[in-house]
Amino acid sequence: MTLNADTTSSDSPEGALAVRVWRGGATGAFQTFEVARRPNQTVLDVVTEIQREQDPTLSYRFACRVGMCGSCAMVVNGRPRWTCRTRAAAVVERDELTLEPLRNLPVVKDLAVDMEAFFAKWRDAKGFFEPGPEPANDFAVVEPSTPKRQAADAGVECINCGVCYSACDLVAWNPDYLGPAALNRAWTLVNDVRDKGQTARLAAVSGDAGCHSCHSHMSCTEFCPKALAPTFAIAGLKRATARRLWRRG
Ligand code: SF4
Ligand code: SF4
Ligand code: FES
Fold it and tell me: Name one GO molecular function term (predicted).
């Protein structure tokens, strides 16, 4: 059942949630739906129930439902999260849920954002493996205990969900800032002993919109659902780019 736009129900029947959902694009309004509480219900279940049972025009994204694809991220009661791995009961406040699209990205419609700028920054940070002019034919052996391998391992599980990017105030202030996810990826590659693109990568991440802009206020690290630490990866890039400058000087 659809309730009044931009209102929440103060008299929700017991066992129901009042779910405020952003509708529209950059401009729009909240629309409130009433959804029954169910055992083990995730926030993604709530959104899916609205779309299937109440309003098929509601736009949102998901794919895996198990925390692998990263496509279901939204802002839930003010905080970016994977909705498929967030139980509604854990985050409701006074029987209310407020769902918004990820911040710092253009809204396509409702809860779906355009991720193009996010992925373009991975490219700009040279967040891709560079094998060099003569790629090795065989597998490289990289000992798990080496410091570089461990530094790469610490950030390699990123699934590109955009939660950290949505949480970063610096991206909001400076839309050109490469952002925590792209810089975290760059750091994993800086520590990849097989990679042959380090000079270009360190140059790419050391510009005005690169690692040295980061204020280290840790929102990305606090909110990353994979418990990665982009702040520390960025600190590593700051050190690596500074060393490179000293060597050149
Ligand atoms: S630590 Fe840096 S990248 Fe992370 S949220 Fe803060 S400013 Fe953004
Ligand atoms: S670093 Fe974490 S929050 Fe950021 S895109 Fe990767 S998995 Fe998502
Ligand atoms: S639907 Fe894939 S991570 Fe949530």
Answer: 2 iron, 2 sulfur cluster binding
